[in-house]
Amino acid sequence: MKNTSIQAYEIEPIPVMVETDTVDLPGDLVIPENCKAMIVFAHGSGSSRFSERNRKVAGSLNKAGFGTLLFDLLTAREQEIDEDTCEYRFNVDLLGVRLTQTVDWLLSRKDTVGLNVGVFGASTGSAAAIIAAAERPERISALVSRGGRPDLAKQYLARVRTPSLFIAGGDDASVIAMNRSALIDMKCEKRLEIIPDAGHLFEEPGKLEDVSTLAKDWFMKWIE
User: For all residues of the chain together, what is the average pLDDT?
Assistant: First the structure.
């Protein structure tokens, strides 16, 4: 995976190795001064902690006083295999376990212990975020999904008690339909925000900034 620019960060990230029960995963940790809470990102299929879109959202959250953790859901070897076979990117149960254990690891660190936690999932990473929220309702205070695939975690939806915001592009009809269907199954505080004239990747001018604003407002409402 190509290492892209980290210009979205205004605070230099701390390189970390996230310790799960089975593998260690590289990540970038940012803890602003007077940190409000930590937001853990789960990237979409075929992406990594170097996702430009997630880094831009993370940078916006850092400016608002939130700490962020972007990490790779797959090892380097798994990523190589997945690029050829796609066998890992839709294994949301595996990704959900890793995200859940990452939240546990984050809250065991001396510099983040005691902080509240939110999760931000993109595309297939949203399914992992839903699983983690279902498994750790006492630890995850808020969830935001960008262009998410909640259908991949359908069996977990009814268990989620975490306030959940789904964000979809107005031109992304299939994701809008998936998100609306998911809301029916969820029993928590929930909302679907549709950003007009935006596609699945929110590449249109100003649309990713809209995502960042919605995410920031949701986390500030439910975490602080």
Answer: 93
The residue whose two tokens read 């900034």 is: 209
DSSP E strand boundaries for the chain:
14-19, 24-30, 38-42, 67-71, 117-122, 140-146, 164-169, 190-195
pLDDT at 8: 57
Q: Could you tell me which residues come within 8 angstroms of residue 28 by beta carbon, excluding any fewer than 6 positions away?
A: 6, 9, 13, 14, 15, 16, 49, 69, 70, 71
* Long-range pairs for 106-110: beta carbons < 8 A, 24 or more residues apart: 106/18, 106/38, 106/40, 106/69, 107/139
Domain locations in the chain as residue ranges: 14-223
Extract the tokens encoding 175.
């994701």
Q: Which regions of the chain are under pLDDT 50?
A: 1-7
Between CA 219 and CA 80 the distance in angstroms is: 34
pLDDT tens for residues 160-182?
999 999 999 999 999 999 999 99
95: left (phi over 0), alpha (psi -120 to 50) or beta: alpha
Say yes or no: domain 14-223 is CATH 3.40.50.1820. yes
What was the pLDDT predicted at 5? 37
Query: Whose CA is closest to 37, among 146, 114, 131?
Result: 114
The confidence score (pLDDT) of residue 10 equals 73
Cβ-count burial of 11 within 10 angstroms (0-12 exposed, 13-18 middle, 19+ buried)? middle
Tokens of 91: 């294994």
The pLDDT of residue 6: 38
SS3 56: helix
